[in-house]
Amino acid sequence: MTDSSDTQKPGGSNAMWGGRFSAGPDAIMEAINASIGFDQRMAAQDIAGSRAHAAMLGATGILEASDVEVIREGLLTVLSEIEAGDFPFSSALEDIHMNVEARLKDIIGEPAGRLHTGRSRNDQVATDFKLWVRDQFDACETGLQALIRALLDQAEAGADWVMPGFTHLQTAQPVTWGHHMMAYVEMFGRDLSRVRDARARMNTSPLGAAALAGTSFPIDRHMTAEALGFDAPAANSLDAVSDRDFALEFLSTASICAMHLSRFAEELVIWSSAQFRFVTLSDRFSTGSSIMPQKKNPDAAELIRAKVGRIFGANTALMMVMKGLPLAYSKDMQEDKEQVFDAADNLMLALAAMTGMVTDMTANRDSLAAAAGSGFSTATDLADWLVRVLGLPFRDAHHITGSLVALAESKGCDLPDLSLDEMKSAHDGITQGVFDVLGVENSVNSRTSYGGTAPAQVRAQVARWKELMA
Ligand code: ARG
Fold first, then answer.
1. What number does the ligand 1 atom closest to the CA of 331 have?
2. Alpha-carbon distance 82 to 39, whole Å?
3. pLDDT digit string (tens) for 360-375?
C-alpha cells in the first residue's frame, strides 16, 4: 500500500469525495474504512464493469466517443498493471473502485473523471461482487461435476461389492459399495442443482441503479447488463444496491455442500482406520506422523470434515450483517466480501481434495465383505423369509428372529452358522430353504425395489446419472 499523500487534496481531504471536508481521516478511520486489502480480488470484475459502463456512456451519447476510447485503453492499462502485480494499491483510496479510478486518472487525466457519470460505488460494488460470486458458482458447478464423476466411477466398479450398511453406526443390513457411493452422488447432485438455481436467480445487473434511486442520465441498463453476461438489469434500484441474497445463497449452498463433504470425509476417516480397513487412501492424499512411523493419516479427509465450520460460519456472519439493515446501501455491507472469499476458497479446495481422494482410493473388498456378513446383518432377511414363506405376521417374525440372534450371539456365531434344528427351536415351520436368504450376496440381490441396494438397481442409477452428466 502506498501512503495517502498523492490521493489527498491540499488540506488533506480525499480527492474522490472530499469536497466538503477540510481534514483527512484519522488513521484509525482509514483502517476501519478501507476494503482494498481484500476487495482487490475483484479488480478484473471492477474493470469489466467500468468498460461496459463506459461503452454504454458512449453508445448513448452521454460521453464523447473520443473520451470513451481513452477510458477504454486506460482501463486496459490498469488491468495489465494489476495482472503484472505492479499496481500501487492505496488504502487511502479505500477500495478497488477508487483505486482503479485514481490510477486511471494518473494515466489518462481528465476523461477519467467522466467515467463515474450515471453510476455510484453502490451499484458498482454490487455489480463487481455479483460477477465475482457468479464465477464461484460456475467453479462450484465444475468442481461438483468432477466429484460426481469420480463417485460414479467408484460406484460402477463396485456395483456388486457387498459391505455393511449402518444405522446408528451399528451394522444394519448389507448394502453394496456402489449403492453407498451413489448416495453421495444424490447429495452432490442436489448441491449441483442448488448451484444452478441460485446462479440463474442472481443473474441480474445492479449497474446503473446508481447510488439508490437510478439516474437522470439517459443510460441503457439493458446494454450494460448484456455486456456483462447478465440476463437483465435488476428491476428496482433500491433493491439492486442493497441485495446480497446472491452472496447468502452462495454461502448457504456452500454450507450444505460442505456439510455433505464433511459426512463423506468422516466416513473416510472411519473406513481408513485399522479397525475398519474398508478403504485404503492413496499416499497422495495422506500424511505421515513425525513420531509414529507406522501411521498414515487421513488429514485431507479430516480437514474437509472441518471446513464446514468456517463456511457455515461465513453464512451465519453475513446473515447477521444483513439482518435489520434499512434500505438501501449501508457500509455494513462491505463486511460481505471476506466471508464469501474465504468460504469460496475453502469450498473449492475441499471439493478438489475430495475428488482426488475418491479418484485414488481403493475399496478393500475382502474387509468389506467380511464386515458385511458380521453383526447379524441378514436378520431382516430371516424375518422377511418367515413372513413370505411361513405367512407369519411381521411382528412375530421379528420376535422369532430376535431370539435366533440371541442364540447365535450366545454361541459366538453368526446366523448362517446355526443348525436347522436350532432354527426350528425358534419356530418348527422353518426349513432348509431359510439358509438361502442368510447370505449377504443373496440379501443385496434381493433388494430390487426402486432405489434399493441390488446391483441391478445401482447400475441403473449409475446409467441415469451418466446420462445426466453427459
Ligand atoms: N467498499 C465499499 C463496499 O465494499 C464500496 C461501496 C462504498 N459506497 C459508499 N457509498 N461508501 O461496500
1. 12
2. 13
3. 999 999 999 999 988 8
Instruction: Give residue-wise pLDDT tens across range 142-171.
Output: 999 999 999 999 999 999 999 999 999 999
Nearest CA to ligand 1 atom 3: 334
| 375 and 171 Cβ atoms separated by less than 8 Å | yes
The list of the chain residues with pLDDT below 70 reads 1-12
CB contact set of 232 (below 8 Å; sequence gap of 6+) = 204, 205, 222, 225
Please indicate whether residue 255 is annotated as part of the active site: no
CB 2 within 8 A of CB 93: no
The Cα 402–Cα 395 span in angstroms is 11
Beta carbons of 44 and 228 less than 8 angstroms apart: no
pLDDT digits (tens, 9 = 90+) for 183-193: 999 999 999 99
Nearest CA to ligand 1 atom 2: 334
Residue 56 has which C-alpha cell? 454504454
Which of 91, 96, 119, 121 is the best mutation target for the ligand 1 pocket, counting ligand atoms within 8 Å of the beta carbon and taking the most?
Answer: 121
Give the CA radius of gyration of the chain. Answer: 31
